[in-house]
Predict the structure.
Amino acid sequence: MIQEKYWIIVASKDHAQRGTSEGVAQACHGKEAPLKRMKPGDWVIIYSSKEHFGSGEKYQKFTAIGRVKDEVVYQFEMSRDFKPFRRNITYYACSEVAIIPLVERLEFIQNKKQWGYPFRFGFFEIAEQDFNVIAGEMLQTVEV
């Protein structure tokens, strides 16, 4: 049996909402490589530092959670000049959860004073216990 993994993708809330409505995820401004690391059954949590792409206002919440549906990584033409790669995701109904109250409980955040550092990479793997902390808040009525 293949062990599932747990990923965080950083995207503004408006981009996360678009992804959840379309059942897809993009990472790192449409790069293919991060999406190829995910496997069917892996969990994905979207963290939104901003509410709107390009905005200076902080949002700092986990905004979506889902599972990778299949093996397919594909390119999608959003415009003539922008053809990002995508992954199909099954998203679950969830509550948005602010990160600040969780910082002390999350092991992937090693420096609690500069907790935002790991999110600068846009895509990264987390341990199951960190996933359970976040998912436990987001999916209070959903069995994971």
User: Anything to note?
Assistant: The chain has a mean pLDDT of 93. Strands lie at 6-10, 24-25, 43-50, 58-75, 85-91, 97-98, 123-126.
